[in-house]
Amino acid sequence: MVKSLYLGVSLLITGFGFAQNNRVTIDLTTQKFYGTTTELNREQYFSAHFSYTDGDLTDDADYLFGDLGIKFGRNFGAPRPFGKDRSVLSVGNAKEAAARNNKNIKAAKLFKEYATRDLIITAHPKEVFQMNADFYKIAQYNAAFIKEAYPVKPKYYEPMNEPFVHAIDFVKTYLETEGVIVEMSKLHKVVADKVHAEVPDIMVGGYSAAWPEYEKNNFAV
């Protein structure tokens, strides 16, 4: 059903040290379609780069998530086999880290009311990847962690966030980054296969690129 809306809007915007009158006009004779859809689904198209574990949002939670209808988008709480608390790449250590993570999430002030599966978990490449590492052991660690780390398991998992722009972090020159990118891609495949096999109720996505590098290789493919 198409809803008719008659609305005139006049806005007064006050900036720092100046004021300006602005008029917004809405054309109610034109309707936008995406396929057969005419309504903008906020839950499908809009999300924010934070989650219910972010304590800074607690004071404004009702306004942000109730009044504005903001949805969570991303959390850097994915497995971090090379994070600061890692000692050995083992399933046992993964389970210990997962237990701590699970406990911390339950203690988060927004967890009880706003926990949701509709969330992407990811991690920084430095915490997930190393050159010449055993990719299968990393995948084992990550799968074991994901099984037990979340009281409400997220729906999506991106093993590394924006990995290729961080390729330089693992070598001395940009000429060497091509090799790093190949190895990052191999790791992503091994991790994805392992998680798909052992944790089928989470979807593995990515990688997500930071920006297109059109000038790379002298603009060649």
Give your account of this protein's structure.
By secondary structure, the chain is of the alpha/beta class. It has a single domain, classed as TIM Barrel. It contains seven helices and six strands, in the order ββααβααβααβαβ. The strands form two sheets. The protein has a four-stranded parallel sheet with strand order 3-4-5-6, covered by helices on one side. The chain has a two-stranded antiparallel sheet with strand order 1-2. Helix 6 crosses helix 7. The protein is globular and about 60 Å long. Mean pLDDT is 85; it is low at 1-17.
Question: Which characteristics define this entry?
Answer:
221 residues, TIM Barrel, four-stranded parallel β-sheet, two-stranded antiparallel ribbon, 6 strands, 9% strand, globular
